[in-house]
Amino acid sequence: MRILHADNLMIRRYGRLKVSTGRRLFNGMIRNNWKVCEYSDRDIAKFEAPLAIKPLGVKAANKRFIETVENFTPDAILMGHCDLLTNQTLKIIKQRFPSIPIIYRNIDPLWRERNVAMIEHRKEVVDAIFVSTAGEPLKQFATGKNVVGYIPNATDPGMDDQDNSQKDKFERDLLFVGRGNKSDDRYSFLEAISPELKDHLTFESYGLYGKPCIYGNGYDELLATSKMALNLNRYEGWPLYSSDRIAQLMGNGLLTFLWDKGDMRKFFTDEHVAFFKDKDDLVRKAKAFNSDDALRQSVAAAGRAHYHEHFSGQHVVSFMVETALGLPYSHDYIWKEAVFR
């Protein structure tokens, strides 16, 4: 399989990387023994621009993308968050290479109007769309000419390389990392649970309630030294939706707390994660798991193994390409029913 992978590869961050779903999927393609050519629209625009002024390089980045398709002749084009590539460029590619399917993925939440608008913008010029929300919300992107499906957040053994389920010494007992502000419901939720936990365990929050957000190697270190973590989305209850935080937490063997909403029990049981129904339930279970390390290790280990088995980048990217090309599924993907044609 030959794949042209267009995404923001963050070359210009020089190692201070944010967590990247695109990189997890790229690693999955390599682990599948596919031939992959990467194209980073934002970096190419800056490299091609006069005086490295990125907006001046957008036209050149689009021209170079067409050139890359001509040179590499992929079996499929997989697009992530590459907003500088225009629909006109994709139309030119479809005209010149009608047999090459264009696959677009978007892992941002559908409650953001800007995100819905971006998917709407792409839906007429791509052959397949994959979103990290399932169910009825996906139907709005079906045109009758495309395929629309759900994908989970991918993990990767090279990136999610810790196994905290096997550790017994940590710098903190409970962690939350997420961006937002005081108008976010999660702020008041974190503010409410903090005093109820402080006499029983160490709880640290970054980015929303507590300390500034942290990236790169600092974030890796934070995960590696945390026993348990909260996976709190800005809005809960959207079908099968979670931010990519869930892959980072479960993939690294942190005992992960999930709201008992959004049909996540289709994927996980109480043997994999710590489901909670409200604030009091969370506080009670956090105290219980913190005082019973054997139970914490058992659930965290099962969750980590389950996540790596079912939601690897290899499986997620294989599902996308096989669905877009109409190929028989090579795995029994546990989310495969969430597809609209």
Describe the structure.
With 341 residues, the chain is an alpha/beta fold. The chain folds into two domains: 2-154 and 312-340, 3-Layer(aba) Sandwich (Rossmann fold); 164-310, Glycogen Phosphorylase B (Rossmann fold, 3-Layer(aba) Sandwich). The protein is built from eleven helices and twelve strands. It has helices at residues 21-31, 41-48, 58-72, 87-96, 113-122, 185-197, 216-224, 245-251, 279-291, 293-310, 313-325, and strands at 2-6, 35-39, 76-79, 102-106, 128-131, 147-150, 172-177, 203-206, 226-231, 255-259, 274-276, 339-340. Strands 2-1-3-4-5-6-12 form a seven-stranded mixed sheet, sandwiched between helices. Helix 2 (41-48) crosses helix 3, helix 3 (58-72) runs parallel beside helix 4 (87-96) and helix 6 crosses helix 9 (279-291). It is globular. The relative contact order is 0.14.
Subunit arrangement of the protein: single chain
Number of strands: 12
Distance between the termini: 23 Å
CATH class of the largest domain: Alpha Beta
Number of helices: 11
Features:
341 residues, alpha/beta, Rossmann fold, 2 domains, seven-stranded mixed β-sheet, five-stranded parallel β-sheet, 11 helices, 12 strands, 16% strand
Describe the secondary structure blueprint for this structure:
Blueprint: E1 2-6, H1 21-31, E2 35-39, H2 41-48, H3 58-72, E3 76-79, H4 87-96, E4 102-106, H5 113-122, E5 128-131, E6 147-150, E7 172-177, H6 185-197, E8 203-206, H7 216-224, E9 226-231, H8 245-251, E10 255-259, E11 274-276, H9 279-291, H10 293-310, H11 313-325, E12 339-340
Parallel strand pairs: 1-2, 1-3, 3-4, 4-5, 5-6, 7-8, 7-9, 9-10, 10-11
Antiparallel strand pairs: 6-12
Helix pairs in contact: 1-11, 2-3, 3-4, 6-9
